[in-house]
Design goal:
CATH topology of the largest domain: Arc Repressor Mutant, subunit A
Number of helices: 9
Number of strands: 5
Helix content: 40-55%
Largest sheet: 3 strands, antiparallel
CATH class of the largest domain: Mainly Alpha
Number of domains: 2
Strand content: 5-15%
Order of helices and strands: HHHEEHHEHHEEHH
Strand order of the largest sheet: 3-5-4
CATH architecture of the largest domain: Orthogonal Bundle
Shape: elongated
Structural class: alpha+beta
Distance between the termini: 42 Å
C-alpha cells in the first residue's frame, strides 16, 4: 500500500484534522509512519503541479484546504446550500409522499391522522416535493411526489433506492413502527 496515497485519501475524507495519533489508530499499529514527511512531500507535489490545494496544519492535525485565490468561488458554490433540517411532522409527511407517490394531501393526512397543509407547503418551498398531477377522485386533488432535490438531499439515485420494509424492520429491531411503514404503504 502506498502510504502517500493513503494519507491523501484520509485527509480528503476526514471532516476534522488528521492527527498523528488518529493516523496511528487507523493503521492499527501495523507499522509506524510519521505524517510530517508525507505531508511535506504531498504539499511539494501540489505546488509543483500547480494544484489549487494545500495541506495545512490545523488544530494539532492536518487538513486539505484550497489555495486562497479560490475561496471566493467556494463561497459562491456554498452560498445557496443549506443544511436540510426538517421537523418530525415534515419528515413523516415526506416519508409518506416518498413511498406512496403520487399521493394526495388527504391521503397523507389520513395516514398521519392530522392536518398537514402547512407541512406540505414547507416541503414544496424547500423543493423536496412537487405537484405530479391530479387525482381521479372527486375534486381532482393535487398529487405530490418527490423531486431531484429530495434525491440529492438523501443521497439517492432514484426513489427505488429507498430502504425496503424488511430493511427498515431490521434497522428498527423488528419494531413494526408507525402505520406508515406497513406493507400497503411502501412503493415496491
Amino acid at each position: 500500500m502506498d502510504m502517500k496515497n493513503l494519507v491523501e485519501v484520509l485527509l480528503f475524507a476526514s471532516p476534522e484534522p488528521l492527527t498523528q495519533s488518529r493516523f496511528n489508530h487507523i493503521l492499527q499499529d501495523e507499522i509506524s509512519v510519521e505524517l510530517n514527511p508525507i505531508i511535506d512531500e504531498l504539499n511539494s507535489e501540489y505546488e509543483k503541479s500547480g494544484k489549487g490545494l494545500k495541506i495545512q496544519k490545523i488544530g494539532g492535525g492536518y487538513q486539505i484546504l484550497s489555495q486562497s485565490e479560490y475561496h471566493v468561488y467556494i463561497e459562491r458554490l456554498f452560498k445557496h446550500t443549506k443544511k436540510l433540517q426538517l421537523s418530525r411532522p415534515a419528515l413523516e409527511a415526506l416519508s409518506i409522499i416518498a413511498y406512496r407517490q403520487p399521493v394526495s394531501k388527504a391521503e397523507v393526512e389520513s395516514i398521519r391522522g392530522v392536518e398537514c397543509g402547512s407541512v406540505v407547503n414547507t416541503l414544496m418551498e424547500r423543493e423536496l416535493i412537487t405537484v405530479k398531477g391530479r387525482g381521479k377522485t372527486a375534486g381532482r386533488p393535487l398529487l405530490f411526489g418527490t423531486t431531484q432535490i429530495f434525491l440529492e438531499s438523501f443521497g439517492l439515485e432514484k426513489t427505488s433506492d429507498l430502504p425496503k420494509l424488511k430493511e427498515l424492520s431490521e434497522l428498527m429491531g423488528d419494531n413494526p413502527g408507525p402505520v406508515l411503514f406497513e406493507n400497503d404503504y411502501a412503493a415496491e
